[in-house]
Amino acid sequence: MPNSSSCTAVLPYDSISQVPSDLSGLTRPPLLAEVDLIALAWKNPYETKNKMDAMLRRRVDREYFLLGAQAHTSDGLGIRWIINNATLDMSRLKNFTTPLLLDLYNGNEQNLPNDVTYTVKDNELVDIVLQNTVALNGVCEIHPFHMHGHKFWVHSYGAGMYDKSISDSISVVHLVLRDSLILYASEYAYFTPNRTTSNYLKACGWTKLRMIADNPGLWIFHCHIGAHALMGMNILIKEDTNKLEMHSLPQH
Ligand SMILES: [Cu+2]
């Protein structure tokens, strides 16, 4: 907490200390006043709160539509999660022998998996729409997506198939910056017939995020359910990699 004098925590280290059984003797820290919390939440090096609110109403520079779906592997033995017909699963990740970021720093893009890579640049205001579809088992699953390297706003969300006019009509004010979102999942009641495998691939909810491309790098954006990530529910965001710099850690 940068502007708070205290907080209380109990940290056991290996076997040499134990969590005390009676915590009643610990002094509670004073809680931050709400006005301080708001100031902390909006303390941002590149934008004021008012400017950030304006971002939500600005015309975006770039929009990506990510259609998520489940699919059998070509041999019929496995299941993968795919985004726009591509999957970044373990079988591909294990083939990377050098860090892709280092490759990009060196101007080498030959190992970059282009079918799962999305480019943003130059402080663009970017919308990413995640579209959910019914899985092979007839379920519309919830996916908690997490983005590395950025915070974003959840701009809007809804049932069924993404509709830009609905998205544009949603009034958004004072949204909180975050790095994770829930990809909306429609209820079974939404479908006809209800929960059945014949609904496979039906559109079943969407969530749209808005972000500023202000951090050069190669960033993963992925479902945070471990199994889903292993099954390929990941994309890469390639951002201003010509601006990457190499810094050495100080040696002691
Ligand atoms: Cu998932």
Automatic annotation (TrEMBL):
Keywords: Copper, Metal-binding, Oxidoreductase. It comes from the Eukaryota. SUPFAM superfamilies: Cupredoxins. Residues 98-240 form the Plastocyanin-like domain. The keyword Transport does not apply. Pfam families: Cu-oxidase_2. InterPro entries: Cu-oxidase_C (IPR011706), Cu-oxidase_fam (IPR045087), Cu_oxidase_CS (IPR033138), Cu_oxidase_Cu_BS (IPR002355), Cupredoxin (IPR008972). GO terms for molecular function: copper ion binding; oxidoreductase activity. This is Plastocyanin-like domain-containing protein. It comes from Didymodactylos carnosus.
